[in-house]
TrEMBL record:
Name of the protein in its database record: Uncharacterized protein
Organism expressing this protein natively: Deinococcus multiflagellatus
Organism domain of life: Bacteria
Amino acid sequence: MKLQAKCQVCGAKNNWVPSQANIKGKLLWSAGYACDSCGNQMEIDDIGFMPIELRKMIFDRDGKFSIKAAERIDDISSVKIKQILRREFSLDLIKTKSICVNNHSGFLSGTYTEMSWLRSILDSLHLSLAIERTDDAGDEILDLISLVK
């Protein structure tokens, strides 16, 4: 997938290049281009989740990832994970209940950076959480964005 923008100086079409970062516990995103015709540069950025179109570009480029426990999570830790996610993302009980922490493929999916950010949010629980590429199984795992949007 490509998302194009018209250069504000010369009108040439350019492809946006998206990126994300997890810096000091904040999820940041940006997208930009440098015009091949005139050299004009454009960049947009924000804190939080990036627009869906840019996120799809990252999936196409880097793949989809999930966060999963290295071993089965006990009931108490499962509840704590759900409490943290509920508080962090202002989830209602129905969305919170939809998170299956002990899914063998992972319990939430998204971009690598989103999963890294999510793992940093859950660090206080001292669980062994892994981030794995899940391109094939990714549709079976609850997408992080579906919880928060």
